[in-house]
């Protein structure tokens, strides 16, 4: 959804009951236009809202030039006003996130944990060790 036509677009998709309040919509529209102006982006589009246990993320993407595939930057907001740059998805980051199990918390400071099982030895003398890693 383009920042300029955000209000109309949100009305069209809010039939599922997960729409935004008028205050959230106004804050989001203003902040997306400011984000576009301040970072000199040609276009800013709202991707959607990711629901979490403690908080929700709003995701937007902007383009530095007319080419939609190059110069693309992704942003997230927790309060519909302040935007933070999302890091690009590298292969190592994707591999790290695939081991995380559980629900999305919605807190940037939350550290997800997963259990790593290591076996040492063979046969009857094999020992299994569990390590807890934080992500």
TrEMBL record:
Its main location: other. Belongs to the flagellar radial spoke RSP9 family. GO terms for cellular component: kinocilium; radial spoke. Keywords: Cell projection, Cilium, Cilium biogenesis/degradation, Cytoplasm, Cytoskeleton, Flagellum. The lineage of its organism: Eukaryota, Metazoa, Chordata, Craniata, Vertebrata. The keyword Heme does not apply. It holds the Pfam family Radial_spoke. InterPro entries: Radial_spoke (IPR006802), RSP9 (IPR055316). This is Radial spoke head protein 9 homolog. The keyword Transferase does not apply. It comes from Xenopus laevis (African clawed frog). One of its GO terms (biological process) is axoneme assembly. It is found in: Cell projection, Kinocilium; Cytoplasm, Cytoskeleton, Flagellum axoneme.
